[in-house]
Amino acid sequence: MAATGDTPGSPAPLHGLHAPLEEAAWVYQLDQVRVEHLPMTAAEALAAGVDSPALRELAGLSRHADPRDIRDAFEQAVEELEIALPDLPLARRHALRRLATRFVAGEVALAELGSDEWSELEGETEEERAFLALLSSCACCVEYTLGFGDAEWEAQLRVAAHALASRSTVGPLGVCGRRVPDTPNGPSPTGP
Questions:
Q1: In which region does residue 80 sit, left (phi positive, over 0), alpha (psi from -120 to 50) or beta (all else)?
Q2: Which of 81, 130, 134, 149 has the fewest CB atoms within 10 Å of its CB?
Q3: C-alpha distances in Å from residue 141, one per residue of 117, 122, 137, 145
Q4: Measured CA angle at 93 (ends 186, 120), to 5 deg
Q5: First CA to last CA across the chain, in angstroms?
């Protein structure tokens, strides 16, 4: 996805050499990354040409290393590479966009969208609010809670998910979590 955004605070798309580490940083904040996978993520980043002392240390750790050592090395690596760990609300919004993207791509089943995980998240954009409004606390209760049958629910979810997934915006941390210089019209839409 190319960055075209205009909405401050919206989750930023990830691309470039740092993408695997940046994605890991976003999901790390939500405890949605398996710590034992971080050394391999670091090794992939090194192979792609990204380098820092802590990244090399992380890549050298075994997946069976003490999780605290892995976490410490990961946090040091992203700091050295100037990859910002997003705050929790921004990370949750990124996760919502990621969920919509995965649903559009067919990687998430309809039943997986029935969860109360998103009940406390308030969308900041129209697309986020539309998608959130269609997420039920459980898939079996959709007809009761939203008034839709499964086919209508899925059709409306696909439209809302596509709208959310296709809207690529840059937030205050910029593309890939790096601070972007402000332009007269707000943050630069293309990032660093």
A1: alpha
A2: 149
A3: 15, 21, 8, 6
A4: 125
A5: 15
For residue 2, count CB atoms less than 10 angstroms from its CB and return exposed for 0-12, middle for 13-18, buried for 19 or more: exposed
Over the chain, what is the mean pLDDT?
76
Query: In the chain, what are the helix, strand and coil shares in percent, each to the nearest 5?
Result: 55, 0, 45
Give the tens place of pLDDT for each residue, 132-180: 888 866 656 665 556 677 788 788 889 999 999 887 543 433 333 333 3
| Residues 6+ positions from 108 with CB-CB distance below 8 Å | 99, 102
Quickly count: other Cβ atoms within 10 Å of residue 66's Cβ: 11
**What are the strands, taking DSSP E only, across the chain?**
182-183, 186-187
pTM over 0.70? The answer is no
Tell me how far apart the alpha carbons of residues 79 and 54 are, in angstroms, rounded to a whole number. Answer: 9
pLDDT at 133: 85
Classify residue 115 as left (phi > 0), alpha (psi -120 to 50) or beta. beta
Q: What is the mean pLDDT of residues 97-106?
A: 90
> How long, in residues, is the chain?
192
